[in-house]
Specification:
mainly alpha; Rna Polymerase Sigma Factor, Chain: A; Arc Repressor Mutant, subunit A; 9 helices; 76% helix
Length: 188
């Protein structure tokens, strides 16, 4: 599979030090790498360092006339970052690699598929939440995001008591669930 034309433009932009292309590559890919590093004994600074090294590698490849990207940029960066991170863990004595077992350690495509599926589900949930309407959206955000108690929610939303607020939260949650799965099943 050859990378699509948008990715080719990004690579060309990277090779020409185009700030917009570099920003786009960074914004579209850093969060995945950050999650990889943080979930594998690393820190935010480690993630930045590893990602920067991978970007330099991609930059050098993009400058080469003979380089042909045969996968998506995110897959390439993920693979390079994974290898760099495993190498660093090995140097710190936190990970042992035997020969070419590194390829069996983490399957890039599987991890990317899981991450992409989770991102798609979050996007569907965001759309469902935005189409939920008020007061349900605000009520669910108050409870699940701002971690407010039912007593506070009852006061804020004008319910007579915490039990009534709890019942309304349940009804809103069921509506959200219905909206989510209606959109989720369309996407499959």
């Amino acid at each position: 599979m050859k990378a699509d034309s948008n990715e080719q433009l990004l690579l060309k932009g990277l090779a020409n030090n185009d700030g917009k292309a570099i920003d786009t590559i960074y914004k579209e890919n850093f969060s995945v790498i950050q999650a990889l590093i943080l979930n594998n004994n690393g820190t935010y600074d480690d993630a930045r360092d590893i990602f920067q090294e991978a970007m330099i590698t991609l930059y050098e490849k993009a400058k080469s006339e003979s380089f042909v990207l045969t996968c998506q940029i995110k897959t390439y960066l993920y693979s390079v970052c994974r290898r760099l991170w495993l190498k660093r863990l090995q140097q710190m004595g936190r990970f042992t690699i035997h020969g070419e077992d590194i390829e069996e350690t983490v399957a890039v495509e599987e991890d990317m598929e899981i991450h992409e599926k989770r991102n798609a589900e979050f996007a569907i949930m965001d759309r469902a939440l935005n189409s939920l309407g008020e007061p349900c959206k605000s009520l669910l955000e108050a409870y699940y995001i701002r971690k407010k108690g039912m007593g506070d929610i009852a006061t804020d939303f004008g319910y007579t008591n915490a039990d009534n607020a709890k019942n309304q939260k349940y009804k809103c949650l069921m509506r959200l669930k219905k909206l989510f799965f209606a959109q989720y099943n369309i996407g499959e």
